[in-house]
Design brief:
Elements lengths: L2 H60 L3 H14 L4 H13 L3 H14 L4 H13 L3 H12 L7 H18 L3 H12 L6 H13 L3 H14 L4 H13 L3 H14 L4 H16 L8 H29 L2 H17 L5 H6 L3 H20 L4 H12 L4
Helix pairs in contact: 1-2, 1-3, 2-3, 3-4, 4-5, 5-6, 6-7, 7-8, 8-9, 9-10, 9-11, 10-11, 11-12, 12-13, 13-18, 14-15, 14-17, 15-17, 17-18
Length: 385
Amino acid sequence: MTAKERVQGLGLYLTREPVILALLSALAVLSFLAVGGLSRMYHAQQETLANRWFTRGTADLKDGHFDRAVGDFRAALRYSRDSYDYQLNLAQALIGLKRTDEAYAYLINLWEREPENGLVNLELARIAAQKGQTERALRYYHNAIYATWPGDSEVERRNTRLELIEYLLRINARTQAQSEMIALAANLGDDPSLHQRVGDLFLQAQDYEHALAEYRLTLKSDHRNPAALAGAGLAAFDLGRYSLAQRYLQVAVAANPEDTRSADLLKTTELVLQMDPFRRQISADQRNRIVIEAFATAGDRLKSCAATVKSSGSTSSESLEQSLADSWAKMQPKINERDLRRDPDFAEGAMDLVFEIERQTKAACGPPTGTDLALLLISKLHEGN
């Protein structure tokens, strides 16, 4: 090959080289785009299948078909293994099937990924509570109360605290429950149904003062609410505020005649108000008549209880009953209007014996009813006086 031919060949190669490089580059780009497109199509298809199974799972979970939901969520996870929501919903479905150990494995893994997730903490709290792990349950409940929630976080936190309170009441941790209720009550706003619910919880915790306050807040905007009226009446009754209890219970029974509990409580309240000889604004003669009636009632209760004690063979109770019977018999001849009018101070001694009989017979023969119950409640009103 001559020099001239070599020069011509080199020139031809140099003119072709850019074209070849351009073609190769174009092929590479097209191949890359094709692979990328196929990859996107594949992932889109995977995502579509995952979403389809997840949608079915959430529907089954909502309807309580937990076994089907577990299968749905497991299928969704085959297409999206690391999905937080899929694993969380699967854990909830497993809880529905009472497969808590499996659910816990998913939840604790999710908690390690997002320890501030409110729902995860709540589910972990429920599992711990179910297993009797109180300290762990309380920790997760409090985490959930102060955690991050999607949507209306204030409502979710309030509902979580309500659930915590109900748990504390179930395990008889009243002091802790009261602390949680006080914190909750401070942020309820004006919703009467919420105040009523918290009033019910305070009542269950035997915190009657706070219960009464919550029911009053309910009744400010819902004056004829039968449940709130009944709750307020019961709280006032347990606080010994019988005049107030009478007012609430009268309206409660009028609003709901089928409320037999409030009706019975109203009868007892009215007996307490009628049979208290130490209440203000009654005449001396009326007071004496009340003492005579109360003394006779206590005597009948003592006789009935003595017969029960005798049949049971309890020698210690029988001895005490006999001592009270002797005291009652010794005092009985002077329990009349004439003698009580002559010696007004004698009425106090008579009522002291009445109260002692009611207390002792309760211990020996069980809680009283009717007028005996009213006298026992009156004795508590005047303890230490």
